[in-house]
Input
Amino acid sequence: MDGSLSIDKALPRPLRVILRGVGQVFFCCNAVTGLVFLIALYIGGITAGLAATVGVISSTVAAYLLGFSEDDIDAGLYGFNGTLVGPCLFLFLENTPQLWLFVVLASVVSTVVLAALMRILQPYNIPASTSPFVLTCWMFMIAVYSFDMFSRGPVLPAPAIPAEITAASAVPMEFSAMTQETAVAWLTAITKGIGEVMFADSVIVGILFLVGIAITSLRGALMALGGAIVGVVIPVILGADKTLIQMGLYAFNPVLTMMAVGWVFLKPTTGSAILALLAGIVTIICQAGLANFLAPLGLPTLTFPFVLVMWMFLFAASKSKYWAHTP
Output
């Protein structure tokens, strides 16, 4: 870890800031970690890697031009929302040359939204985290209805009335039988859960993300792994949609929640790890509820379940005699 920090500080400032922005998606202010994440994204898909690169550069440059805090920019805090905006829009909207302009504009907007939310939340010592990315992408996804130049992609869910899960869609035997196939199914779902934080449906990408986090912090990596496990175990117990579980789509929000509560924003103790576990479980319920709430609009939950639960637990922690924010 000390070696990675030395490399981080030795890099030219523009490159260091950009890579830190990528790393901050998982709360890692480390250019080496950011480089591992970016390489993983390119391994997962050239378009996703390019979109993330364009997003992080656009959002960071916008912060410089708008005169926002140099310290926040150097820490990569104005880069990670843009990093997420790029791959998100390319996943959910139709891939056209014009979409690159949409990505640049949305990344710039995410920087403005972040600055505004930081101002609003500053008195409460609560981070905006990925909420600017979520709000910006929702706005741009809904806006495409009004523009002939852009259109929804096949992955973006069609507006629909929420429906109860059928027995045929519930958890399959792969997650309950004691076989080698079961172990593979669990490993796949867990690692994809980590990869899906940046929209990567890949076991290799998920593993590389975990390695990148471990370069910065072993506790952070353990929290991420714990969140991914919770994001598979609890949906299996509750009988959630098997396809969503297998793709890791119930796991990526708990990954971020457990990292935020158990490592980043509260004192890293055994107690905060237990609180993080509870937060991770609540995140799954929140995600299911939000998915049904947003279904009529045809919008994905993205990382908003993580944001809501993190805010709830951090606000609650400030009122408890047992929990305190780290300095």
